[in-house]
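Handout, section B. The chain below has 181 residues.
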Amino acid sequence: MPHPVGSSTLQWLAAFHTMTAGLLIAGMVFRDGRGRVLRAAGAFLVLQACLVATFAGVDLQLAVPAWAVTVYPLVAAAVLAVYGAFHDRVPIVIAAVVAFGWLSSAGWLGYGALRQILHGLDHITLSLAFFAVAVLVSLGKAGKLSRWLEMWTGAAPMPVPVGAGGAATADAGEAESVSGP
């Protein structure tokens, strides 16, 4: 249940954001290990604020409009991503986590609203999930999935055993013909 907000809460929010901005600016100034720690701490505080704005149901109607609380995590993620692009990877990762959390929350709320309108949506969703698993299994059995992973990661795929009865009789580079009974 949302809690009403008074002026002291707004002062704490202003102090929190000032402190977070100070950490990020100090992290920008220092280019050594201390700066990296300050950048990570500031990014972590932004993550906490965005998680609260996304999942806690904060009621700031007396101070700011409801759409501002809803959009806050996306704006913070964009600012953090731009900051991280110039300084460090940690803020970029945290911005991605914030964006993913916001999108998953919005998607879940949208799915819940759509469930009320479209009966049988759960069955359709479950069928699509099983279909995706079936496609992955088929690609894995055909050997296409390991080739795709090799292309993206650069690592060689695990050799597939060749032979009757499940015994590995051929090297990964050799081809052996197996005759049936």
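Note. Residues 118-163 form one domain. Compare this with the example in section A.
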